[in-house]
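step: validate -> pass
step: tokenize input -> pass
step: predict -> running
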Amino acid sequence: MSIVSIEPATAERWDDLENLFGPTGAYGHCWCTFFRRRAKDHTASVSCDRSTRGLDNKDELRRLTLDGRVPGLLAYDGDGPCGWVSVAPREDFIRLSRSRTLRPADPGEPGVWSLVCFWLPPRRRRRGLGSRLLDGAIEYARAGGARVLEAYPVDTAGGRAPSAEVYTGTVEMFRRAGFTIQGHHTSERVVARLALKAE
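step: predict -> pass
step: emit ->
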């Protein structure tokens, strides 16, 4: 793989993010806003006509980015933007607090950041780029003052699964990066946690 840099998705990089996600807004016109919006506000790909599909989601991500919120990180190589990871303070992802399967055991726990999504164009997958984005997310969260980085991976039991099913990452990739994997307190999902600061 060529040299890759991992950079914050700042306002100046909005065009790169828009171009990377393309006309489908990454997965199903989501524009990586699923966890950032209440269910009634998120425009699902099947709920609106084709010409406006996902536009509200795109507008939300654009607004956040241009307002300086840095919704995630972009990977770049010699050809330009080539990957994405969404990482931010957990409270930015309002859907987590309302989720039956991912609701935090302690919503008021201080210093927790969440990693909720990866996206790579199909030709960039299975080349280690996801792990590089994960490493970048760890360092970015640590630099931002996070005490813990939390994620919600899918257990593929070491096998492969369609990318749209593992957009939150796999248990194995987080385990390799040093995360502790534990069962969710009320569901069959798992939570990956990495301490970034000594207690």
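step: describe -> The longest strand covers residues 80-89.
step: cleanup -> pass
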